[in-house]
Design brief:
This protein is 31% helix and 22% strand. The chain is α/β, with parallel strands linked by helices. It comes from Agromyces mediolanus (Corynebacterium mediolanum).
Length: 285
């Protein structure tokens, strides 16, 4: 059995634009996630985080580089075309309402993720089990997404991902659309699920303090590259890269107004590195 559930090796992602230059959103990134480990990927909007997430899930193929899930190459296929083994890699998206059908009950959507046939008489129990994992009552299964708050809908999206009994969950900005209280609840839920189920998780966010709260290791992404990676507390207490230091300094604090440090001239701006921030945002970077 492989030591890592996810291995990204020298990943390059280039977006082609009609009538304009190509945009290199990801530039030679290598990353691993082990079972029971949360790896945080942090960086500003447009740095390539979401482009990398879609490659990690097999939604998009990299321009070059290798993606391995549980030791085997991961082919970019639509989720329903994948073998059951590959469906053990699940993704939780930023907008929970967009990832849930408004016309179907929660129970029917949770059962979509199950990789093995379940006898009809056992389906209600499976739905109740999944809802219990995310802190919701079994009665939620008969309701529709519009009947839930944003935080509850994200719990439902997580429950649907858990239906496949995943080895890896890629969470791409999973709390950005939520208020602070709901965000804290979802982060605590994800932490407890990783401990309880032993799955790996790639947690992606622009919020370094949020990543610090959940991740065992943190990778900092800037201009399409990983510029620093290490244990989260070590990276927080002793950052080495100027961009990491700038991210930490920019976290709001209660107190006197302070001047934020800038980046030195030897740290490339995104445009100088061949990154068009506006274009990568438009390409879901």
């Amino acid at each position: 059995m492989t030591a890592n559930v996810l291995e990204l090796e020298d990943i390059v992602v280039t977006h082609r634009r009609s009538g304009g230059p190509a945009v290199q959103a990801v530039r030679g990134v290598s990353l691993t996630v082990a079972p029971g480990q949360v790896v945080g990927l942090v960086g500003e909007s447009g740095c390539g985080k979401s482009s990398l997430a879609r490659v990690a899930c097999g939604i998009h193929a990299p321009t070059s580089g290798a993606v391995r899930f549980e030791g085997a190459p991961l082919e970019p296929l639509r989720m329903r075309q994948r073998p059951a083994a590959d469906r053990k890699l699940q993704m939780v998206f930023q907008n929970p309402y967009a990832s849930l059908s408004p016309r179907r009950t929660i129970a029917s959507q949770l059962l979509d993720g199950v990789t093995e046939p379940i006898p009809r008489e056992q389906r209600a129990a499976e739905v109740a089990r999944l809802l219990e994992l995310v802190g919701l009552d079994a009665a939620a299964g008969s309701r529709y997404p519009s009947q839930f708050s944003g935080g509850q809908r994200q719990r439902l999206a997580i429950a649907r991902a858990l239906a496949a009994k995943p080895s890896l969950v890629v969470a791409d900005e999973p709390v950005t659309a939520l208020d602070a209280f709901s965000s804290a609840q979802i982060v605590q839920l994800l932490q407890s699920l990783v401990r309880e189920l032993g799955m790996g998780m790639l947690f992606i966010s622009h919020d370094l303090s949020l990543v610090r709260a959940i991740a065992d290791e943190t990778a900092v992404m800037y201009a399409g590259e990983i510029v620093e990676r290490g244990p989260s507390e070590q990276l927080w207490e002793r950052p080495t890269h100027p961009y990491t230091k700038t991210l930490i300094a920019a976290i709001p604090e209660i107190g006197p107004v302070k001047k934020l440090p800038g980046l030195d001239e030897d740290v490339a701006e995104p445009a100088a590195a061949g990154i068009d921030a506006a274009a990568t945002n438009g390409a879901s970077a």
